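Researcher: Good morning. I'm working through a list of sequences from a screen, and I'd like to move beyond sequence-only analysis. For each chain I'm collecting a predicted structure so we can compare shapes side by side. This is the next one on the list. No need for commentary yet; just the structure.
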Amino acid sequence: MKTLTPIKAIRAKCLDCSNLQVKKFVNALLKNVLYFRTGWAITTTHGNKYLKTILTEFAWIASKMKGTYLWAKYQSLVGRRGKKKTLVAVGHKILIMCYHILKYKVPYKELGVNYLDARKKERIAKSCLRRLTNLGYTVSLKEAA
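Model: Good morning. Structure tokens for this chain:
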């Protein structure tokens, strides 16, 4: 079975409905934003509840597609936030992606699983080095060729 990228899954979902519904969906993406309240609980307050439902469903699909950026984002957040809050956060990422694709008319570019680790490469190395030093090991780091 062929796996779809998250954006292709969204496009396939949109193609199942009529043109008027697609236009309403695109307008909702451009006009509505999910607002987040910071603190202990991250909840959506204002915005389109139908858009939130669709984005949460797409986030659930994306969280099951191994080897994608959205899967890696889900995995990095689920341990700290829990499943439901993470789905809302990944749905927000999908909304941001769709907004930029529609605004700048650029094709979707899959960032890959290692994108998050590559951005934090030095921080991860320092953290691991500090932990090993605290455990009593002497470590020297050398980049692989």
